[in-house]
Specification:
The protein has helices at residues 3-10, 22-30, 40-49, 53-61, 66-91, 116-131, 145-156, 169-183, 201-210, 221-237, 264-268, 279-288, 302-311, 314-342; strands at residues 14-17, 35-36, 99-102, 137-142, 161-166, 194-199, 247-251, 274-277. It is α/β, with parallel strands linked by helices. Strands 2-1-8-7-6-5-4-3 form an eight-stranded parallel β-sheet. Helix 6 links the parallel strand 3 (99-102) and strand 4 (137-142).
Length: 343
């Protein structure tokens, strides 16, 4: 393990790789990673390398549709990553070592997606189906109205959950409450794990473009928002008697601004819960020569906090980023299906 990544893990951070590429999974585990996440973009990038061409040819020869092939390939890749991290899952008695599996993003397609009730039912059906028989698999569900409405039933069925596409405290509150309602219906809560993926860098991109009056608060919104939600999550679960930690994932930790150090967000959240870092972010951290210490409790100066509270309308921010996020959510799945069709 390189010294910077070693210090990040030593600070109290669980490091999960934002990829299920087999070579990167093995590398990241050797560097201290204890889990991984997946999405259609990641799967498409793996398909482009050609390493699953044989599987695709066989499935197509059997008459499988591109959609069938996409989910078979995704399931295979996620299962292989689960195998790599299973020793972590066993050593931590189910508190770590997970790999996230994203259910059908096309459910949220703005034009093709089904009505709300059908989406909710489909999330529940798919979540139960894809989690069955996979102890260290998390089902990734977006914090959309339909996704949130599916969470109670999924939690009540004991499905481990990664609630993604969270941009605001309001979204987090709704998602967590739905999960908690489901947890209370479980006869045995000892094996249940939920994580809440709060997106970070996209908030700073948004405020730079849409909130020019923010001033000294520019570049801090993503960090402040995520740390506030982290504190709420800690406080909520503290007295609930859960055996496993119900944690935050600090997602979208790759910087979008060229002038920002590549480890800006990695450093800000060091010390607690989970960071899902893209491979290139881990490479930058490993090459930085830095020693990371716990920063999760630190906050920016009061004038920064005051500027954020005064100028940022988090409901507008959520509305904009969710609309943008849903497009980015569904389009990669379409691209994956198209890619498989051309293979």
């Amino acid at each position: 393990m390189t010294a910077p990544l070693q210090s990040l893990v030593a600070s109290g951070t669980k490091l999960w790789l934002d990829s299920i590429d087999p070579k990167l999974v093995e590398l990241s585990k050797s560097q201290g990673a204890t889990g991984a996440t997946s999405n259609p973009i990641i799967v498409a990038n793996i398909v482009k390398t050609g390493i699953v061409d044989g599987m695709i040819r066989e499935l197509r020869a059997e008459g499988k549709t591109p959609e069938d092939v996409a989910w078979t390939v995704t399931n295979h890749l996620v299962s292989e990553a689960e195998r790599v991290f299973m020793p972590v899952y066993e050593a931590t008695q189910g508190n770590d070592g997970f790999v996230s599996f994203e259910v059908d993003p096309l459910l949220e397609d703005l034009k093709l997606g089904p009505p709300h009730k059908e989406r909710v039912a489909r999330y529940i059906e798919l979540g139960k189906f894809w989690s069955k028989g996979h102890a260290n698999r998390m089902i990734k569900v977006p914090a959309t109205p339909a996704g949130i409405d599916a969470l109670e039933e999924l939690a009540a069925a004991g499905v481990n959950l990664n609630v993604t596409l969270i941009f605001s405290e309001a979204q987090y509150n709704k998602a967590r409450e739905a999960v908690w309602k489901g947890v209370q219906r479980l006869k045995n809560r000892d094996h249940f794990k939920s994580v809440y993926s709060i997106f970070v860098s996209r908030l700073d991109v948004y405020t730079e473009e849409h909130v020019p009056a923010l001033g000294v608060g520019q570049g801090w919104v993503g960090i402040v928002n995520a740390k506030r939600i982290w504190a709420k999550n800690k406080a909520f679960w503290a007295d609930k008697g859960m055996k496993l930690q119900q944690e935050m994932i600090f997602a979208s930790t790759g910087t979008k601004k060229a002038s920002d150090p590549k480890w800006k967000y990695v450093d800000a959240f060091a010390g607690s819960d989970i960071e899902t870092n893209p491979p290139e972010t881990n490479e930058a951290v490993a090459a930085s020569g830095r020693s990371f210490t716990s920063q999760i409790q630190t906050r920016p100066p009061k004038d920064v906090l005051d500027a954020i509270d005064k100028h940022v309308d988090f409901q507008k921010l959520e509305d904009f980023l969710m609309a943008d996020g849903l497009k980015k959510f569904a389009d990669p799945q379409k691209a994956l299906l198209e890619l498989i069709s051309t293979k």
